[in-house]
């Protein structure tokens, strides 16, 4: 399964590894190997880290806490203290290391905890910062992806124009054409 990074925040991209949350749920982190691949695809690490079943369970708990907190912020609801603690604990780890090569490239290294700390820190910065009011949920059914609306007018409706936005516009066009 291919991972997508369209949320505008690494923490929300981790939360986005579950698709169609309200029906026909799709979990893109089904195995420890999937999580290891995600850390590389997200640009957190250059080499897939060692990931066990316990690590996968912890990453999924972090993912769900981020989703619940981002949803609460989006709806103006109170934040759950246990979810805040979980994200804060993950963010407290040393983040993934980056090193500049003399050639100008980057090396990204660390264990899984470092990669997840980087994602957790991104979520903390978003949820506690000024952009928190820009968190939206994709309007395309059955997508439930959360994203940061950075559009000029703040009226973005879809998580990704190439996917959900394109399908929604094509469906609207077909509906108008069939009248």
TrEMBL record:
InterPro entries, A to Z: ABATE, ABATE_dom_sf, Znf_CGNR
Domain Zinc finger CGNR: 135-176
Entry superkingdom: Bacteria
Pfam family, one: zf-CGNR
Record protein name field: CGNR zinc finger domain-containing protein
Organism: Nonomuraea mangrovi
């Amino acid at each position: 399964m291919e991972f997508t990074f369209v949320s505008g925040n690494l923490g929300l991209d981790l939360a986005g590894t579950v698709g169609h949350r309200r029906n026909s749920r799709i979990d893109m982190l089904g195995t420890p190997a999937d999580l290891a691949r995600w850390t590389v695809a997200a640009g957190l690490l250059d080499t897939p880290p060692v990931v066990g079943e316990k690590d996968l369970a912890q990453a999924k708990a972090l993912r769900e806490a981020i989703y619940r907190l981002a949803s609460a912020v989006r709806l103006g609801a109170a934040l759950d203290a246990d979810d805040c603690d979980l994200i804060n604990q993950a963010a407290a780890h040393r983040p993934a290391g980056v090193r500049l090569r003399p050639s100008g490239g980057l090396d990204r290294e660390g264990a899984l905890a470092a990669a997840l700390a980087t994602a957790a820190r991104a979520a903390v910065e978003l949820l506690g910062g000024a952009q928190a009011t820009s968190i939206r949920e994709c309007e395309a059914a059955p997508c439930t992806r959360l994203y940061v609306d950075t559009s000029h007018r703040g009226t973005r409706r879809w998580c990704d124009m190439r996917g959900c936005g394109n399908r929604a516009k094509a469906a609207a066009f077909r509906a108008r054409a069939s009248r």
